[in-house]
Amino acid sequence: MEQYTEENCNEAKGIFDNLISKMVTSGENGNKNEKEKCFEIAIKSLNKLNEKDEGIIETGEREDLCELIDQITLASGLDPKDYAEGEGIADLWGEW
């Protein structure tokens, strides 16, 4: 599909690589507010990527991204059920 250019895929990968790196550095017992800020930055970056090339994040991709973000949330010591009435932290800032 034409919207999944190497550039777009690398940008999405970079967003997640950066988030994961920050979570590893923070550690499971790191500051909750700082972790949440990292998730906010990552999710808003995904919003910008989707705005740049609309159609990148459709329903199927949204579900996959939310699942991946939930997994990262759990690995970082946070509980996705604590955000957006149990929908996960991505639902706080995701516009997709």
**Fraction in helix:** 55-70%
- Quaternary arrangement of the chains shown? single chain
Number of domains: 1
Order of helices and strands: HHHH
Unreliable stretches, pLDDT < 50, 5 or more residues? Answer: none
**Overall radius of gyration:** 13 Å
Please give the number of β-strands: 0
Please state the structural category.
mainly alpha
Cα end-to-end separation: 18 Å
From the spread of the alpha carbons, the general shape counts as globular
Mean pLDDT: 94
How is the biggest beta sheet arranged? none
Please give a structural write-up.
With 96 residues, the chain is mainly alpha-helical. It has one domain. 66% of the residues lie in helices and 0% in strands. It has four helices and no strands. The longest helix is centred in the first third of the chain and has 21 residues, at 6-26. The radius of gyration is 13 Å and the shape is globular.
